[in-house]
């Protein structure tokens, strides 16, 4: 007698057995389709998983269960054809429920063929792996967070106020150099990890956060103690978790040692820069010449020493652009006003032009006119860009006044010499002729231009040995710095060849300094 489970049932019996099996399966949707993909059987698990009652699903095409995106790319047909070709087809993908929600499904399609190999239809089983998908995503997210925390040198902690315990992450301890440490610490033990100089302040901040609003946040920078005793600067931020009575304060600590070191180095360099600037400004303030520094390319005056304040009769305030240089009344030596963009400092800023020395006339606010020799240059950084231009002002008013006085005095002397009827020849200390008055030009038969720069003995043609006597008198005059008078008359030969007997005298010409 054959056993009922090992004997071959009739087709009606097989169909009933399949129905009973499919209905008894929990958590696994089982359905049958005809050769065209139309659903013909639908178990209870399929109804629970997908939300369609048998009457709603049976008679519908398989595409009912696919997402809009998959239907748009004709993916149901692709899957059926793949199963028909290979015998089976499986995949994991998002599927659609009746209410429009999605779930992550593992599906397996199997082709059903008759004894002659003809296509009868398909069977399909579906498993809801949404929970597994979420767990995998959570694990992936956790791994990513771990990588981020490790890369960012960060660790997390949470303080459960109710039990006065602090849960510390593995990354937190790794940050402090601990390989293996307990995860749960008492509040006091956790505070022991804080630098003694900041422990009391953090305790106060934590208790204030505890007593504050539910959405209060704690942000601070402090030092933690590493296992080797060294201090580690961290940035700490903490907020209350959404929990009953707000009893859990969660936070993160990010290592900022490199930032702190950079800040300290920056502060050191800034102090050094301030000291250098103060020393530089002190040196410039001692200079008798005016010094002005302007930013490029704007022309804003950033510095002006005391000498420049005195020379210009004003400070550097209000000069925010080279266009504001119009407030300085500069003109050239002929009295023509100079436009702001043509002043030496503006040319250095706008054209990177260096001006060795340029004499300008400046009218001070009180109306006095002064002469300045101005030197300007752009200051180029290592990258070749001019960021500052400097101008140096030298007061040459006294020199210009002396030059004008000397020119006037020379003119008076020349007028006087021209009016004298006696011939007058002047030389320098080496006996080289420097001037010849009109009377001497007529007597010598040569012009002043022809005589100037020639030795005295070549200009005056003395005869009968008289030349030596006159030259000796000149040497005595220069050596003794006194006049030589009472000299014997000498014979002079003019250019016309005639001889003239002339009286002569030699006298030194002293400058104001003797």
Task: Describe this structure in a few short sentences.
This protein has 17 helices and 21 strands.
How many separate helices?
17
Q: Order of strands across the widest beta sheet?
A: 8-7-6-11-10-9
Weakly predicted, low-confidence segments: 1-10
CATH architecture of the largest domain: 2-Layer Sandwich
Can you count the beta strands? 21
Structural account:
The chain is of the alpha+beta class and 514 residues long. It folds into 4 domains: 11-128, PAS domain (Beta-Lactamase); 147-255, PAS domain (Beta-Lactamase, 2-Layer Sandwich); 290-395, PAS domain (Beta-Lactamase, 2-Layer Sandwich); 414-502, 2-Layer Sandwich (Beta-Lactamase), CATH 3.30.450.20. The chain contains 17 helices and 21 strands. The strands form 5 sheets. The chain has a 6-stranded antiparallel beta sheet. A 6-stranded antiparallel beta sheet has the order 13-12-17-16-15-14, with helices on both faces. The longest helix is centred in the middle third of the chain and has 30 residues, at 257-286. The termini are far apart. Mean pLDDT is 80; it is low at 1-10.
Features:
single chain; 514 residues; alpha+beta; Beta-Lactamase; 4 domains; six-stranded antiparallel β-sheet; disordered N terminus
SSE topology:
Layout: H1 11-24, E1 28-34, E2 39-42, H2 44-50, H3 54-57, H4 68-72, H5 75-86, E3 88-96, E4 102-113, E5 119-128, H6 130-151, E6 154-160, E7 165-168, H7 170-175, E8 184-186, H8 187-191, H9 196-211, E9 217-225, E10 231-240, E11 248-255, H10 257-286, E12 290-295, E13 301-304, H11 306-312, E14 329-331, H12 344-351, E15 355-363, E16 369-380, E17 386-395, H13 397-419, E18 425-427, E19 433-436, H14 438-444, H15 448-451, H16 456-459, H17 466-480, E20 490-493, E21 499-502
